[in-house]
Amino acid sequence: MVNQKSTATAEIGFTHEDFAALLDKYDYHFSPGDIVPGTVFSIEPRGALIDIGAKTAAYIPIQEMSINRVDSPEEVLQSNETREFFILTDENEDGQLTLSIRRIEYMRAWERVRQLQAEDATVRSGVFATNRGGALVRIEGLRGFIPGSHISTRKPKEELVGEELPLKFLEVDEERNRLVLSHRRALVERKMNRLEVGEVVIGTVRGIKPYGAFIDIGGVSGLLHISEISHEHIDTPHSVFNVNDEVKVMIIDLDAERGRISLSTKQLEPEPGDMIKNRDLVYDKAEEMAAKYREQLLAKQQGIPVMEIEEAVVAEDIPPATEETVVAEDIPAVAEEEIPAATEEE
C-alpha cells in the first residue's frame, strides 16, 4: 500500500519547512526610516493594521497618523486604502513593525517651508495661541513662532487669537526645530510695493531715540536718522520732534529684503537748517524739493553729468549707522529661549 502522505509530499514537491524557507528567502528586509507602500486591512479604535509585505501585519497608532491632531483613525485611513508609510521602529517581540504617516508629513512640511523661504514667499496663517514672547501659528502643519517685536498691530497679543496674519520667514531650521516668522516684515514689504524712493509721505512720530525718530507711515515704521533731519548739526532728535508730531518726510531708501524704510527731511530743506528754523517752509516746499531730488537721482543713475548735485544726494552721505541702528532697534534679535520648538501638533 502506498503511503498517501508521502505521495502528497512528492506531488507538492516541497515540505512546510521548504515553504517557510522560501518565505524567508523572498521576505523584504525593513529598517526604521524606510518609506514603504502598505494597504490598510484592519482599522481599530486607536490604530490600524497595515499590510506592507512583511510576515506580520505592521501597526500604526493613532498618534502617528497625521501631523495634526486626530481623534479617530477613520479621519485619515480607509479600509483597503494603499499609501506610503514610514517605518518608525524595528520589529517588536511579536515581529511587528510600527509605522507612521506623521513622520512623512513632517519631513515634507520642512521641505515645503524651506522652499517657501527660498522663494521669499509671504504666507498667511491664523494665530492659535499667544505667550509672553509672541504668537503661535501653524505653517504646513508645523508650529511657527512670531516674536512680539515682529507683530505689527496695536491690538494686545491676546486679541490676535483666531486672526489670520500675512507672514514672512525669518528662520527655518529643521535641525534646531525652529520656525520663526515676521508679521511686521510682511506688512513692510506690502507697503513698499506701493512706495517709491523720492516720494513724499506724511507720517506720525511714534518713537524717538538718540540716533533718530521712528515714523509711522500708513501702518509701517520708517527711520528718520539724525543725520537725515537737517543739513545743520543736531545734538538730539528730541530737540526737533515730539512723539505724535505729524511730519512730512521723503523716502530715500527701500530695503525690502531687510524690511527697512529710510526717511529724510534734510533733502527737503530749501536752505540748510530750515528744518530747525522754518519747518513750515520745508513742508510747503516739500514736493518741489523732492522733484529736484528725483531729477538729480535719475541723472546720476543714467550717468548724465549734473553740475550741481546736492551733497545729500550722494549715497555716501547716508551713514552706516542708519542700518546698524535699525538692526538694534527696529529688528531686535530674538532670544532662543523665547522660540517654541516647531513641533507638529501633539
Compose a concise summary of this entry.
With 346 residues, the protein is an alpha+beta fold. 24% of the residues lie in helices and 29% in strands.
- Ranges where pLDDT stays below 50 over 5 or more residues in a row are 4-12, 308-333
* First-to-last CA distance: 70 Å
Give the DSSP E fraction (strand runs of 2 or more residues).
Answer: 25-35%
- Class by alpha and beta content: alpha+beta
Helix and strand element order: HHEEEEEHEEEEEHEEEEEHHHH
Number of helices: 8
| Beta-strand segment tally | 15
In which range does the helix fraction lie? Answer: 10-25%
Please list the strands of the largest sheet in the order they lie side by side.
3-2-1-4-5
- Global shape: elongated
Alpha carbon gyration radius: 32 Å
Major beta sheet summary? 5 strands, antiparallel
**Mean pLDDT value:** 82
Oligomer: single chain
How is the topology of this model organized?
Elements: H1 4-12, H2 16-26, E1 35-44, E2 47-51, E3 58-61, E4 82-89, E5 98-100, H3 102-118, E6 123-130, E7 134-139, E8 142-147, E9 164-173, E10 178-182, H4 183-192, E11 200-209, E12 212-217, E13 220-225, E14 246-255, E15 260-264, H5 274-277, H6 279-284, H7 286-302, H8 321-329
Parallel strand pairs: 13-15
Antiparallel strand pairs: 1-2, 1-4, 2-3, 4-5, 6-7, 6-9, 7-8, 9-10, 11-12, 11-14, 12-13, 14-15
Characterization of the model:
It is a single chain. This protein is α+β, with helices and mostly antiparallel strands and 346 residues long. It has 8 helices and 15 strands. Helices cover 24% and strands 29% of the residues. It has a 5-stranded antiparallel beta sheet with strand order 3-2-1-4-5. Strands 8-7-6-9-10 form a 5-stranded antiparallel beta sheet. It is elongated, with a radius of gyration of 32 Å. The relative contact order is 0.10. The model is unreliable at 4-12 and 308-333 (pLDDT under 50).
